[in-house]
Amino acid sequence: MSNESIKVTINGKEIETAKGAVLIDVCRENAENIPSFCYYKDLEPQASCRMCLVRIDKMPKLQTSCTIKCTDGMVVTTQSPEIEKAQRSMGEFLLANHPLDCPVCDRGGECELQEVIFDWGDVEERFTEKKNKAPEKYLSPIVANDPQRCILCKRCTRVCSEWMGEDAIEAGNRGASTVIGTYGGWLNCSQCGNCIEVCPTGTLLDAVYRHETRPWELDQTITTDVYGSDGMQLSIGSRAGEVHRIVARDRYVNGLNGEFLDVKARFAHEFINHKDRIKTPMIRYSKGGKLIPATWDAAIKHVAEKLSAHGSNVAVVVSPRLTNESIAALGLFARDAVKTENIAISDRQSMAAFFENLSAPLATHNDIRYAQTIVLIGGDAEEEQTYTAKQIRQAVRNGGAKLIVVNDTPIRLSSKASVFIHADISTVDAFALTLADPGNDSAAAEKLGVDAGLLGEVRNALIETQGDVIIMCGSDLSADAQAVIAASAGSIAGDGRRVLLHPLPLYNNSVGAIDMLGNTGSEEMVIEKAKAVYVAGSLQDPELLQGKDFVVVQELFETETTEYADVVLPAASFAEVDGTFTNNAGNVQRVRKSIEPVHQAKPDWMIARSIAAEMGVDLDFEPSASTLFKMIADSVPGYGGLRYPALKDESAPVQAKHDVGPRDISSYAGALQKWVEELGDDSQKNFEPPVIGHKLHRLTTMTSKTPQFHLLANGNPKPENLLVAPLAQFELSGEPKQELAAAVRVGDRE
Amino acid sequence: MVAATPTSYTDKVAVTSEIAEFSPDVVEEMRSHLAKYPADRTRSALIPLLFVIQRERGWIDNPGVNFLANFLNLEVTDIWETATFYSMFNLRPVGRHHIQICKTLSCKIMGEPEITEHVCSKLGIHPGGTTDDGKFTVSLVECLGSCGTAPMMQIGFDFHEDLTIEKVDKILADCN
Amino acid sequence: MEIKAIGCEPLSLKRVQIENGHTLKVYRDTGGYKSLEKAFGMSQDSIIQEVKDSSLRGRGGAGFPTGMKWSFVPRDSPKPKFIVCNADESEPGSFKDRYLLQYDPHSLIEGMIIAGFTLGASTGYIYYRGEYNYLIDVMDEALNEAREAGLLGNNILGSGFSMDIHTHTGAGAYICGEETALLSSLEGYRGHPRMKPPFPAVEGLYGCPTVINNVETLTSIPQIIEMGGIAWRDLGTEKSGGTKLWSISGHVKKPGVYELPMGYADMEKFIMEDCGGMLRSDKKLKAVIPGGSSVYIMNAGQILGQGVTLDYEGLVEAGSMLGTGGMMVMDETVDIMETTKNLTEFYKHESCGWCTPCREGTDWLVKIFDRISSGGGKPSDAQLLLDICDNIEGKSFCPLGDAAAWPIQSAIKQFPDDFKKWLSVKTNGNGSHANN
Ligand SMILES: Cc1cc2nc3c(=O)[nH]c(=O)nc-3n(C[C@H](O)[C@H](O)[C@H](O)COP(=O)(O)O)c2cc1C
Ligand code: SF4
Ligand code: FES
Q1: How far is C422 from chain B (nearest CA, A)?
Q2: Does the beta carbon of C58 lie inside 6 Å of ligand 1?
């Protein structure tokens, strides 16, 4: 689409628009509604549903407005008896074989087909023949499928291919017997569920939510994903204090991530109301004794006394999963109440060094989608920052961007790369050296085990780019490498070329945690020095708590960490609190309370505040998330001036202003050089592409509470009978349930 | 009429990792197909290669599909989507002799119904069926481009035209 | 089955009738590859001009002027270019290409090389319908002969032009005859048509400029180069140049492939005399589908005594179309409701399923016909059928939808009684029809 502006006439109205704009978009932007099913902005056009027919002067037939690019002087009619007849007839065709079982369809009330037909009213059903039949079945533990409802808009197959690059679900057969499915009838993929999300009808369904409620009974709360650092916006559907399902922020509007979510964000929400949630505070009165339920008052009093007793000989360790508000509050708690600087973020792969050395601004996810050149250094975006990975894939596939992948594993994205620097095992750090100084090329290439010319090639690709260059840095790189990459990026910019940085941290609020607390020591360091430890969340390495006098843990569930705890305090999950997370693009996004805290749980910041109060210290902030955030805005550089109202429209994310400037990298570069020299030199390469889902499907404290994840983690076995829920046919271990496996026959369905 | 194999059937395929093996000549033949297309367009060879698989293995079975997936660097479902579109590919076993009787207009008015009736009653199966000994499968198919020599049928790739009951008996007798 | 030319010297059929016409030797002895040498001596533009002068129109059914199609190719484009021969011949009633492929492969090869030379294409593919697999060996044999004789490969006949041609097979899908679906299929995908524009001439196979022509179209090229565009055109009429192959089937004594000059007069003489008249002399002519199943069906009244000329214009005037020239003749024993049902089943089976109206429409139509033929017809069905056709026609993604609608629309119009009798009567218990 060019920026040359032209005039088109729609239903008599003259309208200015960009040359080459897609007609259906222009019509909709100008309140001329046009029904459509197969059209999906930002997916390749398909023009198969024939729903969007309009009349264009000087053209013989009705035209599909989803395929027409606007030209100057075009005269368009979108409403006339002829057009309504055509559109109604498409609706009639689609309903012909569509079972009218809306009352028992999970998509009822959210179905685009239902909506279009309803809008017309008085639809006479002339189809009185037998409908084609096909049984409802399962495509995976997570995806249920009712083929009869399919209108073959192929959004699902396009998102699977264009967004996910997986081509796991396709169309089979032809003509009226065309179906959406897979070879073998079983979906072995990352189970992102985007096919379910984009399905306009009840053909692909969320098997975790299946038949739990009717959509309109749900209270929808828009909030931010608690797993990945992309900060995907989503909508929690809850009823009577229970979370039933998660869908993308809004089925029809493109926000930060449109309808894109991944398997964890969309399905791993069963932990929220899980029976194993810690219900009350608990105190272990003597080491080795049991945790005994206690009242909040008793527990807080107990903790306050013990901590006061230890003076400043206390470590505070904070999980990067908490909200900015809670992390900030725990920071105050440490400094003002416990009076210690002995505070750490329990982030296995902290990117603090990266953030201390930004020489270029952070890229937004939209920048990534339209970038010209993308350098992906380390990381495993497809498993850890799935939305970033999707933007990369589309930038390459739909936008023609040049992708350069530097990795010691042939991740799937490497097959889309124009240059793949396949480094020897764990030598990726060496690549940072070439960014710092071309002089290092030969040394780096040697260590990486690649041809030095390749590195030159990369540099040329960068400096020849017109448009945006985006440099992505995995959190698996060493601190020095991260620092060098962040610090050298700026120098690549040139006229007509913007350079942007994109970090790939692990947790939903890794970035916010750094913004709140800065570059803290590691959990080892701080715990080492302390006799008492206050943990919000759980530790990467619980053993560190071995032999401490006194340990307090705020958690959702009993974990290895709580086994060392003398006091356990029930914390509220992200679905039960207000606050903010900051994502890997620096977007500060709202977390909204969807349900009341379960049982006696309290927000982490509130617990810290009460304990401080009990210790006689007033952490002077009003007991509300919004005042906490105001305090953050006033103290944290980069958050200046932010307020909740400014974050209201989650489709227009607000970016924190991280400190960007020219950096002196000499010290890091030196350190990195040494480090790289000392790297193992067995020049081994790994040629095994990682299995899809090897990280996404891992069982963790939170994901393991959604039963379906056990089947995924156990290799997603195909059940005997696709008509029966997999959970009814397998033990969580993935072992077939004997009696059932025996009982179900496969033969009975042609 | 057997069109593309019903997916209710391919749904039942137990997808294994077993990969079919072929004699050097057959692999050579496959390579000669690949050679016809640009190096980065090997998927073009998919349909010709599916015919080779079908000829060698009797139908498009799972080990055959796995072989192609490796050979052409595709997902098995990519092969499935293409294979199920075309009516000549059998994603389930068929008889050694696949009798395909043309049922379209010219053949229809020139005596196809009698031929079909005769063949089916002789073999004791219905169109779409396979004899118990796995020797014959009968399908009704659309126009095969022999309208001038109707009625006609195709067995395997061979055309048999200007059919009469006597001719059909002889043809069936010659099948072994 | 007859194979002969009437009213003109055999051109397309020249070698189809002679012994070993498929071999390079005989082909050359009968003047083969002379046109290629001549073409090498001509400029690309003058070749295109000759083809334009010949007013050759595509023989695959759409009848698009070939010279014009060729002139759309961006010959200066840096991308490679392709010549694709459409040998998918799947239109019910057409079987002419089959005989050219079997008995005169070299004239197709020669035509493709000339096309390649003209448009700067160094690769050609011949897309056979899967059911024609048994014919591919003949062509591969001929291609090898040509390679060995230096007619394919590098620097053909010292012209400096290089090209190779490969055979490719489909696997049973009528839609793959549609040029863009053919390309999808040739790339190894499902045979779904693609959006036009971009037209194949600009973005075709692998996104490169591609010319797709029917077998008969391409075999006409050497003739045109040999005798000159104007002379070739004058074999036929001003607007419809040259000669045309007709495939005749159904209730005639001498079905077969006939080569007639365009503008041949007239259709009645052709059926009643040239083709030997009605198969059963005591049965009257009832209906003719003149151009393959995808055109309007004609009743006897539109033909007998009407002086219908056999060319594009003549058949349009008479209320149908030339299509592929696949003429299906039916006598009075035929029930037009049943033949229409038969064709509708064909279109349902061959609908690729991409777009709503064709996929769901043909499925619905067949269900209605099934009900009617089992005695459940209702008077309102005629109107319903027509309205469904109207909702498909002009709204489908590709012309197959239209092709499914036309036979029904014309059948109900031209043979109202054949429908009335099905739509008014009651069944007699066993579902079979009361009055037959
Ligand atoms: C449904 C459909 C089926 C077709 N089948 C054939 C075919 O079997 N053979 C053919 O040559 N053209 C066929 N065509 C026409 C082609 O799309 C295309 O117009 C033709 O091959 C161009 O070559 P020509 O200009 O030489 O005729 C078909 C078109 C449609 C819409
Ligand atoms: S009209 Fe539509 S469904 Fe029918 S063949 Fe063409 S694209 Fe496929
Ligand atoms: S939206 Fe245009 S055809 Fe489906």
Answers
A1: 19
A2: yes
Please provide the DSSP assignment of A368-414 as one string: HHT-SEEEEESS-HHHHSHHHHHHHHHHHHTT--EEEEEESS--GGG
> What whole-number distance in Å separates Cα of residue C140 and Cα of residue A35?
51
User: Helices (DSSP H) in C161-308: which residue ranges?
Assistant: 179-186, 215-227, 229-234, 267-269
Give tens-digit pLDDT for A44-99.
999 999 999 999 999 999 999 999 999 999 999 999 999 999 999 999 999 999 99
Which ligand approaches the C-alpha of residue C210 most closely? 1
> Please, what is the Cα angle at A403 between A399 and A407, to 5 degrees?
150
Tell me if the bond preceding A410 is cis, omega within 30° of 0: no
**A560-570: string of b/e by CB count within 10 Å (b at 16+)?**
ebbebbbbbbb
- Nearest-CA residue for ligand 2 atom 8 is C352
Task: Answer yes or no: pTM beyond 0.90.
Answer: yes
| B&C contacts, CB < 8 Å | 142
Strand runs labelled E in C31-102:
82-87
Residue in A179, A183, A750 closest to B77 by CB: A183
pLDDT tens for each residue of B108-131: 999 999 999 999 999 999 999 999
Interface test with C, best of A92, A93, A132, A152 (most C CBs within 10 A): A93
State the number of CA atoms in the 13 A half-sphere of A5 facing the CB.
4
Residue C134 predicted with pLDDT over 80: yes
Contact flag C339-B103 (C-beta cutoff 8 Å): no
Is the pLDDT at C326 greater than 50? The verdict is yes
Spell out which residues of chain C touch residue B146, defining contact as CB-CB under 8 Å: 95, 98
Between chains, do B38 and C93 touch, taking CB under 8 Å as contact?
no
Sheet containing A292-293: order of strands: A292-293, A282-283, A567-570, A550-555, A532-536, A314-318, A343-345
Q: What's the order of all strands across the beta sheet hosting A75-77?
A: A13-18, A5-10, A75-77, A53-56, A63-64
Q: Which residues line ligand 3 (CB under 6 A)?
A: A 36-39, 47-52, 64, 66
Hey, which chains touch A, using 3+ CB pairs under 8 Å? B, C
Q: Find out whether the beta carbon of C292 lies less than 6 Å from any atom of ligand 1.
A: no
By the 10 Å C-beta count (0-12 exposed, 13-18 middle, 19+ buried), A8 is classed as buried
- C-alpha–C-alpha distance, residues A427 and A342, integer Å: 33
Q: What ipTM did this prediction achieve?
A: 0.95
Q: Is B110 helix (H, G, I), strand (E, B) or coil?
A: coil
What six digits make up the tokens of A361? 């601004």
Contact (CB<8Å) B11/A168: no
Residue type, A629: F
Asked if the Cβ–Cβ distance from A175 to C353 is below 8 Å, we say: yes
Distance in Å, alpha carbon of B131 to nearest chain C alpha carbon: 23
Per residue in C349-383, pLDDT (tens digit) is 999 999 999 999 999 999 999 999 999 999 999 99
